[in-house]
């Protein structure tokens, strides 16, 4: 089998030299474990942070060892009664063709309940749950709020905007990195306004798109976007801090947001979060978002890259913003 | 009577030329109003912001008009039955020897229930309530937390540290601007550790003072202090953003905090607040802090400046950090 390893820690942007593809024997599952033939794997922005040798909320990837991350596959050998051969499972040992996992650490899913298996890595997976928890629990979204989401054509952002719309937002505004993406936000996902952050300063475009200000900002980007949002937020505005993709490859610390002190007078709440500490919301999330999916009221475009050997390029493309919606890699 | 007016808007630090003292007739109270002979007036850092011609949570001071702010005085003429002559009242029309106020907008207090009248501008007034609400409601302090407060020898900071101690903090750490102040924090107010921020980088001193990290940061200062606190905060840390005195006189926006994105992985909550929207907590605050005051478990030093004509210098001294505890001006 093939797996992708971290060849060297990147400084700044990762390159092809950051990764190596290796051949290794298919591992044997032990007692209570299953062997999974992976069908799709996820690439996510947070993986960039794990390439640095920095203590964070997850341990860093080790040089010479396989990367890991969300994946879905079929159980081909099982030493666990509750996860029989033929089950489809979501787990966290991607970047390889076969994975051995403890049965207790996989989530069995129903392939018939989703349009494609890959949805369990996106709209119906951690990506969708991140959008749900961040908007509703962290940013305390309520009906009538004006919502701004950055990286709005990305995996999380595109779900945030749709949940806001379906839950009764007054106005949903998104930023993205191309005219094609902003058209997608308005034409396909029902955003009220969208702008290309490369066209003009974010602050100017956001002010024009939000003449009555913003109540909730869902931040996937950091930097100028966060500063512009603080400037445009209304009294008692709320920010869900989910990601800062604009600065993941920066070598020097960012200058923005220089206006953070205005959070005092506007009584703004900024709250960082990781979806991992909110898994108790999975049942509510599956019920509500799954319902919208079945009734056709929510949609999720995916960008699918074929072949494990192309996973590094998929990840680099993700950091560049090449994807619309969830970026996944189809294996084998 | 005399009053202090805004002579010119300052750019950067205010100077003596920012203010003018003027003579004006003692005003006549109308129906439902009272005439107050002021005894003490408060100077507070937020007043600096109101000297700029910038829309904020309070309207800016007008050039040529008297300044205003918290004050306490004796009612000498009353056209309101519920506020008779001889009452002592807290109100918001300071910076003048006599004020006319609507009786509905003053708070009658009992001079016998406080060690000095000035306490109603400090420990038992908006200053103390700011500390109480910020620590308990905004930062969600809980027993066993390690608390760091900047501007700890100031009016709000010195109360924050003492409430944290009395409510069962594991460790209370304060920063201040002189060795005399840091001694006061430890010897008189019961802080566990204190450092002079002028001695060495805040981050280094805070790390040394908080070997197990910080759970709650009460920010009166902004800038380097806020950046250092974010760096030292533990998982699920909370920041009450109360003030940013380090940058009130800055002409250019500040660079810090450059590490704000680490609020994501540490799931930090930063929350700006103004005490004005939390006045429903006044009864709880008076009961708890008043009780500590009567039993001698909480104390509040004051820096008292004599004479309305010295109020501008008192305010400038406040911005420089000349005060220990609440800075008040005694009138007449």
UniProtKB/TrEMBL annotation, chains A, B:
<dbReference type="InterPro" id="IPR011032">
    <property type="entry name" value="GroES-like_sf"/>
</dbReference>
<dbReference type="InterPro" id="IPR045010">
    <property type="entry name" value="MDR_fam"/>
</dbReference>
<dbReference type="Pfam" id="PF16884">
    <property type="entry name" value="ADH_N_2"/>
</dbReference>
<dbReference type="InterPro" id="IPR036291">
    <property type="entry name" value="NAD(P)-bd_dom_sf"/>
</dbReference>
<dbReference type="InterPro" id="IPR013149">
    <property type="entry name" value="ADH-like_C"/>
</dbReference>
<protein>
    <submittedName>
        <fullName>NADP-dependent oxidoreductase</fullName>
    </submittedName>
</protein>
<dbReference type="InterPro" id="IPR020843">
    <property type="entry name" value="ER"/>
</dbReference>
<keyword id="KW-0560">Oxidoreductase</keyword>
<dbReference type="Pfam" id="PF00107">
    <property type="entry name" value="ADH_zinc_N"/>
</dbReference>
<feature type="domain" description="Enoyl reductase (ER)">
    <location>
        <begin position="15"/>
        <end position="329"/>
    </location>
</feature>
<dbReference type="InterPro" id="IPR041694">
    <property type="entry name" value="ADH_N_2"/>
</dbReference>
């Amino acid at each position: 089998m093939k797996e992708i390893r971290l060849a060297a820690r990147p400084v700044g942007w990762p390159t092809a030299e950051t990764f190596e593809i290796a051949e290794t024997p298919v591992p044997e599952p032990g007692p209570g474990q299953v062997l999974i033939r992976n069908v799709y794997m996820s690439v996510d922005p947070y993986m960039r942070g794990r390439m640095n040798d920095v203590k964070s909320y997850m341990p860093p990837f080790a040089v010479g060892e396989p990367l890991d991350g969300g994946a879905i596959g079929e159980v081909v050998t099982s030493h666990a009664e509750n996860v029989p051969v033929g089950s489809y499972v979501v787990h966290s040992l991607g970047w390889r063709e076969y994975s051995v996992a403890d049965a207790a650490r996989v989530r069995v899913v129903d392939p018939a309940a989703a349009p494609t298996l890959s949805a369990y890595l996106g709209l119906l997976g951690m990506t969708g749950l991140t959008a749900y928890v961040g908007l509703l629990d962290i940013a305390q979204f309520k009906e009538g709020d004006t919502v701004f989401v950055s990286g709005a054509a990305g995996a999380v952002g595109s779900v945030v905007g749709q949940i806001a719309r379906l839950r009764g937002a007054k106005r949903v505004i998104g930023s993205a990195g191309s005219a094609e993406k902003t058209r997608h936000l308005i034409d396909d996902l029902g955003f009220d306004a969208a702008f290309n952050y490369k066209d003009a300063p974010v602050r100017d475009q956001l002010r024009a798109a939000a003449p009555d200000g913003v109540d909730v900002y869902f931040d996937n980007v950091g930097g100028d976007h966060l500063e512009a949002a603080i400037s445009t937020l209304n009294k008692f505005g709320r920010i869900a801090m989910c990601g800062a993709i604009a600065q993941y490859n920066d070598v020097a610390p960012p200058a923005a947001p220089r206006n953070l002190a205005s959070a005092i007078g506007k009584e703004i709440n900024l709250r960082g979060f990781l979806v991992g500490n909110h898994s108790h919301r999975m049942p509510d999330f599956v019920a509500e978002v799954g319902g919208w999916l079945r009734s056709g009221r929510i949609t999720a475009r995916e960008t699918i890259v074929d072949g494990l050997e192309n996973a590094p390029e998929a990840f680099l493309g993700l950091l560049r913003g090449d994807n619309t919606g969830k970026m996944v890699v189809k294996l084998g």
